[in-house]
Amino acid sequence: MSDISKSSKIRSAVLGAAGYSGAELCALLSANPYFELSYAFASGGRDPEPLASLYPRFARQVDILVEPWQDSLIPELDIEVAFLALPHEASEEVAPKLLAKGIKVFDLSGAFRLKQPELYPQYYGYAHQHPELLEQAVYSLMEWQTEPLGDLVSVPGCYPTACSLALLPVLKAGLVAADCIPVISATSGVSGAGRKASLTTSFCEVGLNAYGFFKHRHRPEIEQNLGRKVVFTPHLGNFKRGILATCVVNLKPGVSAEQVKSAFSQAYTGKPLIRFTDKSPNVADVAGTPFCDLYWQQDGEQLVIMSAIDNLLKGAAAQAMQAANVRFGKPETAGLFAGAVA
Ligand SMILES: NC(=O)C1=CN([C@@H]2O[C@H](COP(=O)(O)OP(=O)(O)OC[C@H]3O[C@@H](n4cnc5c(N)ncnc54)[C@H](OP(=O)(O)O)[C@@H]3O)[C@@H](O)[C@H]2O)C=CC1
Ligand SMILES: CC(=O)N[C@@H](CCC(=O)OP(=O)(O)O)C(=O)O
């Protein structure tokens, strides 16, 4: 039993709670002793329905009614923080309205991730309506976070989380050849595409295929994080959840195995959600967990780094929870080890 009284908990709402990442966030908030899940919302056209009816695995674990959202509810909301697990354009539209009411916003979509508004038409297919918020938003890749999180937090994308956590240690340590363009191939489970029905993600259609060559919206996000161009090729695999990323770089001549190891341990010593594995990581070992598993192999100047995360947890809901814990001065991993079931 927690000794934190209900009244001292941080009151929160999840928008997009009927979707895959929003439902996970509802579970994490319910398991977090410092937060209260006060409201859960889906899109406007639905009837109210318990989350446990939408997702029976949450029965007796998450007790919240998912209600239809409309902006006219905003003045009545008695919350300190809203988590947006919405399509990008819906997040972009509602975030300023919540911020205007003094509600802190953690956005899981891509709406506020890129600093350059001119990239939105090219990579997201729409012009950004609130470029001033791109300046304000703080990007919460927490293992590399130095800036304080403000009122608008932009939670990193799933593929960018896996790839950036893999590549930043050697890049920041100055071990990668100046002219190297990292090559990243990453495979996601089908939950990465969200819960809505679509032909490309239906059971009989999904095998293993690449998509989004050079044009995927996560390419500029990864490049923004790493400070250099990348070749990024996402793949869709026939499993439910998880991302396995294979990242290949050329090292500077003479970089030793010891230097590589030291770069990783310096980056991640004391970081509770990073695990180094002794063999290639497996999505099965991270599914349902908030961890990022990392492994590398070096052959002279060539380095292959493998990274595995659960796209819905470290790639979305758990990363948002981690950031909110830090933002509100709570233990970084509060609520993270109990909420999810694979
Ligand atoms: N899936 C993943 O692995 C990851 C997803 N993300 C991002 O998180 C966000 C949510 O993704 P995901 O959980 O997969 O999405 P889903 O498609 O599974 O769920 C989307 C949710 O948003 C609700 N919604 C849609 N439009 C509106 C609207 N205009 N107003 C209010 N609610 C609305 C839907 O309601 P209803 O159910 O009623 O239609 C649903 O509850 C996306 O931006 C995605 O890019 C980030 C990282 C990883
Ligand atoms: C398998 C699949 O379709 N994955 C999605 C990425 C997951 C996601 O929702 O992207 P964000 O992290 O940017 O929110 C895609 O490629 O568009």
Automatic annotation (TrEMBL):
Its EC number is 1.2.1.38. GO terms for molecular function: N-acetyl-gamma-glutamyl-phosphate reductase activity; NAD binding; NADP+ binding. Its main location: cytoplasm. GO terms for biological process: L-arginine biosynthetic process. Keywords: Amino-acid biosynthesis, Arginine biosynthesis, Cytoplasm, NADP, Oxidoreductase. Residues 11-152 form the Semialdehyde dehydrogenase NAD-binding domain. Gene3D superfamilies: Dihydrodipicolinate Reductase, domain 2, NAD(P)-binding Rossmann-like Domain. SUPFAM superfamilies: Glyceraldehyde-3-phosphate dehydrogenase-like, C-terminal domain (SSF55347), NAD(P)-binding Rossmann-fold domains (SSF51735). It is an enzyme of class 1 (oxidoreductase). GO terms for cellular component: cytoplasm. It catalyses: N-acetyl-L-glutamate 5-semialdehyde + phosphate + NADP(+) = N-acetyl-L-glutamyl 5-phosphate + NADPH + H(+). Pathway: Amino-acid biosynthesis; L-arginine biosynthesis; N(2)-acetyl-L-ornithine from L-glutamate: step 3/4. The active site is at residue 158. It is found in: Cytoplasm. It comes from the Bacteria. CDD domains: AGPR_1_C, AGPR_1_N. It holds the Pfam family Semialdhyde_dh. Catalyzes the NADPH-dependent reduction of N-acetyl-5-glutamyl phosphate to yield N-acetyl-L-glutamate 5-semialdehyde. HAMAP family: ArgC_type1. Belongs to the NAGSA dehydrogenase family. Type 1 subfamily. This is N-acetyl-gamma-glutamyl-phosphate reductase. It comes from Alishewanella agri BL06. The lineage of its organism: Bacteria, Pseudomonadati, Pseudomonadota, Gammaproteobacteria, Alteromonadales.
